[in-house]
Fold each of these.
Amino acid sequence: MAGRSIGPGLRTFLIFAALVVIGAALFPSSYFYRVGTLVWINTLSVTGIVVLLGYVGLVSLGHAGFFAIGAYATAILPQYGLPSGVAMLAGIGGAALLALLVGRPILRLSGYYLAIATLGLGMLIWMVLSKEAWLTGGPDGMAVEGMSARNLFKLVGLSLKSAEAWYWVAGGCASLGAALAVNLGHSPWGRALRAIHDSDVAARSLGIDVARAKSAAFVISAVYAAVAGALLALANGYITPDTGGFMHSVEMVTMAVLGGASSVFGALVGALILTALPQVLTVLADYEHMVLGAIMVLTMIAMRRGLVPALAGLWARRRP
Amino acid sequence: MTLEIDGIGISFGGIKAVDGVGFAARPGEVTSIIGPNGAGKTTLFNLISGVYPTAAGTVRIDGRDVTRLPAHLLARAGMARTFQNLQIFPQMTARDNVMTGCHMRERASLLADLLGLPSSRRETAKSRIAAEAALDRAGLAELADRPASELSYGQLKRLEIARALVTGCSILLLDEPAAGCNAVETREVDDLIAAIASEGRTVVLIEHDMRMVMRISARIVVLDQGRKIAEGTPEQIRNDPQVIAAYLGAHGAAEAEAAHG
Amino acid sequence: MSELLQFIISGVTVGAIYAAIALGFTLIYNATGVVNFAQGEFVVIGGMTAAALIGAGVPVPLAALLAVLAGTLAGVLLYRLAIKPARQAPLVSLIIITIGASIFIRGAMQTLFDKQIHRYDGFSGDAPLRFGGATILPQSLWIIAGSVAVFGFLAWFLNRTRAGRGIRATASNRLAAALVGINTGRAMNLSFAISAGIGALAGVLATPVTFTSYDAGVLMALKGFSATMLGGVGSPLGALAGGLLIGLIEATTAGYVSSDYKDAAAFVVILAVLFVRPQGLFGAKITERV
């Protein structure tokens, strides 16, 4: 083997971890930690979209549904006696199982058909969460009592404020998630997934079981979303059905495409911009939707591969 | 491995694109499929390789009936192919393109791949070596790191062959591998194909370049309008009046008669 | 029995609206290959504009006309500013563009008007008419008549006018159409304009019955999708059939199952169609050329 260089996965983890630390160093108040936590949680869920959309090329407009399953399981199950950690795992497992079951028929579709089918799936999940108020608290949402990140750090003798503690947890999860996705990209499974992206029929001719590979990507991305959802529920102490709504699904895909759907760094950039933007846009209050919509349209027209590839291209062209 | 096709066909919207075609291809030789444009040659390949389902007939590999197998299982049974309209992976490097061909030989566990375990990295390293050997054989070694989208048409044709070779296939279906190549490139592809066949693989070739076909084929099958109209050695096919008529039309056939006669 | 009849009436009424939305989708999809996620917003533009104008004292026919024109203009702008510049973009880009456009329009509606729910009186009053043991609002008749008129107009336009045949040619084979001298850009622009106009008209007619607000467009679009999928993408007849069926399914679900989940009916239909028969009732089967 040629030398003991750091593998791409570990390298990605370290870069992300460094960014987490740098972020924390710059934050003057709890508010920033909260926004930062949200950025890392979104990065995690969007990394799943990178695997599904960037690697394989499948558009899902319903992944917020899996996010919400992770969140609501974490919120609801402890009320029936389950410990918080187990509830989280159950939510993640439930999302994975649903993705596995529904994935087989849905993934036979492609293009717009797949997008609309996943949209329908997401909407059904959202509807159940909104209507079954006895279970979920209905449209107003419900409070979440569960594991506290503070306690985690107390175990190692660190005393942190809740917002800070959650920031580190979210950042750590996002870094780990990014590393796993990068490992996948450079591996045999990753090459199979990327082959399907460019030519379904060629992939088959090389012995790739396309149905199985698509299903794996679908389940993996559902797991990423569910973990992110669970984290959000615990960090915020509150969730609403909108976490599973159409707009959130659209946001996830937009974050991926804005940053550059084929790389986890694109996920980070997209998540950062679209999470921080509304905070900035509260200044513009009434015009928030118009600005968001305009950004979506203009970015796709001017920079359709996303910000990270566009910037990389500019950088490459600078060299004489 | 011997490939035996018997009476396969398919219709599209009432038109019989391929109708009752059968032939046999043996290891160590090149069997060529020729015919005018629209004769159904690529459709025939799509039927054999499981892209389209055949309406009737059988496909056998070494006597085993593989007719109903889906494309990816046919690949595992030893069949590989290239595509007339190039199905390479433009977003990957040339090397990665060929490495995808190693899929069937990789022991890939999803968990090991996600965690980047040594077992996963070993498989990638093995595939990399195999891919580079195939690229070298196809004369593309210096282009390994380039994105496939930057390669020329002729280079991409050879890339697809390299990718098909690295699967370790016993049966190789090549769809117009020399299309768009100049005389030198055609000769190179020529030699490559002849070498592949002489290694003991079964090569089935669709080509329009008649000199190439005549030079390297052991047997030729001629299609016209979805049906087989002739089969034989290059010598037999060259002089077959039906073949000449199919290519040149009745008028041209008369002229050819007059020229030879 | 009269209960069933009531459900059928409300089903056909709302189904006529969905059919109009589905028709708009189909027209744009056929001509440009784009699935327009902003289709529901045209309905809202029509309804909100009419509500504002009528509220300001403008006579109903004039308000209706201006509202339809406003919607049509929005359609043209959507094509010119968002779709045309991104023509060769990949699928996910086009999806984000039309969704982004719908978000933009929604923001504009919110800013120009407000976040309230609006309605105005029915064109022939609001006194329900008795019909076989059930009641039907006069506006429902307007809606149904309007839908029929739209379909009739479109059938005539696409078959009997030069511009309409241009659209059909562009839909069939854009390159070939361009090669024979058809201005495909104008044809696509026209398809957006007509679709938007149809949507706005649906909104104008429907508001007395369904009310309108700045964010009603999303659900409208999704149900229009469902109708399109059920009827078969690309088939105008399918749009009609799909719309009516979705309306009926929704009404009977609300009546016999649960009114909470009536909106879910459309999504269950989407999934059912895509799993069982993706080409819908009247759509063409899709094959891939290798």
Amino acid sequence: MQQAVNGLFLGSIYALFALGYTLVFGVLDILNLAHAAVFMLASFGALTLVGRGLHILAAFPLAVLLAGVLGLVLERIAFRPLRGRTDSNISGLISSLAMATVFVALALQIWGPNVTRFPFATLPSGRPISFLGAGISRLQLTTMGVALLFFLALWWLVTRTRLGREIRAVAESPRAARILGVNVDRVIAASFFISSALGGAAGVLFGLAYDVEADMGRSVELKGLAVIILGGMGSMPGAVLAGLTLGLTEAFVVARFGASYRDAISFAGLFLILVLRPRGLLGQAALREA
Amino acid sequence: MWEWLGDLYGTYESTLAYIGLNSLLALSVYATLSCGQLALGNAGFMAIGAYAATLLTKSAGLPFPFALAASLVLPALVAVPLGLPVLRLKGVFLAIATIGFGEVVRLGIVNWDFVNGAQGIVAIPQKTALWMIFLALAAVLFAFGRLRGSKWGFALEAIREDEPAARTMGIPTTSYKLAMLVLGAAIAGLAGALEAHYTFMVAPNGFSFSRVVDMLVFAVVGGTIFYWGPILGAAFLTLLPEILREVAPLVGIEPGPLRLMVNGLVLLAVILFLPNGLASLPARLRERRAARRALAA
Amino acid sequence: MSALLEVERLERTFGGVRAVDGASFAVRKGEIHGLMGPNGAGKTTVINTVSGLLAPTGGQIRLDGRAIQGLRPHVIAGLGVARTFQNIRLFADLSARDNVLVGEHLVRKASLGARLLMLPAAAEEERRAKERALALLERIGLAERARERARNLSYGEQRRVEIARALASEPRLLLLDEPTAGMNPVEVKAVAALIRKVASEGHSVLLIEHNVKLVMDVCDRITVLDFGKVICEGEPAAVAKDPAVIAAYLGAQA
């Protein structure tokens, strides 16, 4: 049961991160490899703000906002100019890679290569809460709670608001959406903002639980890929489901076989899924209209 | 005069060696790019070649040529069962699957005590000479050069442009894509073995995702229209940090972040403004000049 | 009269839609066989299944007596089938000549060993291949545009290059999917003449066309599809008068 809690905690972070990934993929059919760099920058952002004396409750939303803005920058510089091109999937991949490199370089320059942690008292500590025989730390509870809030907010946005409808329309067919009067450029920018905000939130939560360093995006990035493939590219519920599943699986594997196999799980799984059922759990076969 | 050249060589020998090695690595990624496949598992193939060769020379005491041969053959053999299922995937899915393969190889090494896991192997006999690297490079270039203009070269270009149409012309696209994957794997493996015996160490963190990203960047920046494009990219991006290292203190930025920043900016500039890489620069300039002349006329 | 291509109760379903619903017809050797029908009748789907890009969900396709349904496209091409596409699929960045060269893939007898060893035989083979490509371009009247990149050719020129590329593999059966769409009358006449010449040289042709006059002029026999079913098969004059055919086309226009 303890493992289940640990798994859900870790899985919430994965799910949050993967949601951002899959949102952009659903809308643009492009993999945004700078997502992990935004994840990292948001964490550093929150760390710096907290270091300046800001309470985490204020630093968190600011960091998330920063992440969203970075997403807008990304979209404008690295993705929009490539919109018409035939090889836009690969070139989008590469330009996002380029931006990721720039972001990491910035982080290294500003904060150096060392590993840092959030100050000890950032989150109010206390005894772990007992639940069904397992102990949930306040951190874990907060993380899962925040993640849940984001999931619900996103679900409400996508299903109940006009922007959400427009996003779904563009994901289905940008051309049709444009004909129907949707401002496709604005929708894409908004999607990037939301996607990066989600990634940033995941980053701060991750940083609170573990360490903050310039390289922290690396392993999460690849796991995020595994999650969106497992959940189905472009499927948001799939990303959440798969993220939680991966978290749970990792927790149980680590408990049983030891920490060194934790990463291998996601990649072996990724591999099998791609070969056996590329659609993932909930995705649709990706045939998009231009 | 000769002394000066000798000194120059001594200082820059490792840069030259890395230009050669990086060119080989860039070409290993180019092999699959040339038929339109974004296969990013080459760090894994490189690792297999490097470790296999190392075990053969260090532990088994076999002669170097033997180890090099193994570094060609072993990754090639692994590429076949990998390629058959994975080459059915398109675009970004293939990229992700091959990235996954690379990571699985790396993690396998990290968890394998026989090869010292994450710490890697040191004190590998230094057997690689510069001429070996450039001989290998020349051989690979020759092979690609001969492919171009041949029926297979045209077939590869056709697959890259429009795979289904290519199939209706009798081109067995899966076999050709597999062949290029195997070729790329062999080249990467050889480069891995050469590098291991040049730097006399080998460790799994040298075969991570960022390694294969570097290879991709060399190929893209150089340009993948011509087979010699990736070499341009590799040379340019290997020389750049050397130059930057001199410049960094003047600008007040640490050399590490500066190199990374410039890499990122160069890549961005290329993908946005010169999508076919540096190799396409002369043609672009010619077109620009011709267009200007046409307007003036 | 021997049939080169026999399509027997061909079926192809997409999700719930029966694009081809039990169609049967045959193309005789040396014949120019037209395939007509209103939009959405299933003509391109038929060609896609014959060329192997799609596998039929039912029925049989026989080439010279041998079953080819479900075989992979390159295998079918190897048996002597070549095609053009409804929305031109030339290799845009290759020159006209190089496009045709790709088409020659099946007939080039190059040896990889000779190529790598730079033996004179390889250079000779390459030269002959280029000559063949140029000759094909001459046949369609585009020899002067040989070096031009395909994307820079006019629409009509591109369609003709696509036909040349299909001919390059010396196919027994040529599948042409709306080769004159978007062409002016002069170009249409040129293509008609080309098709007739090609058939007289021994190739059999299955021609999808909306240009009724062209089809009537050039085809020996015609099969008409509607909603995936064959509603008429026979000589042009008879088909033109067939009430089911008239109803299908008028119905489509209504």
